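Many groups now describe folds with learned vocabularies. In that spirit, our science desk offers one protein's residues alongside their backbone shape tokens.
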Amino acid sequence: MLTLQEFNMLNTHDQEEHIWNGTFLADREENGLVVRLYSLNSFYGEVFYDAHTNKVLRVKAFDTTSQLVPYLAHIKFSPQ
């Protein structure tokens, strides 16, 4: 299993390969980009994707749950 530190030492292409093998959790929009969140066992990975150019612009990894807050804003709760 890859650690966050090992992941961050990979080149961008290899980071993307590992993220695609993770578990998709959610997506959101930020500054016109689609940001997709994946679980990679002991950490999370985000892919910043430009749908207009069909390109990945950035990959980011983190292990703190505080960085999940932007995804929580998009959850809709049903009244009970």
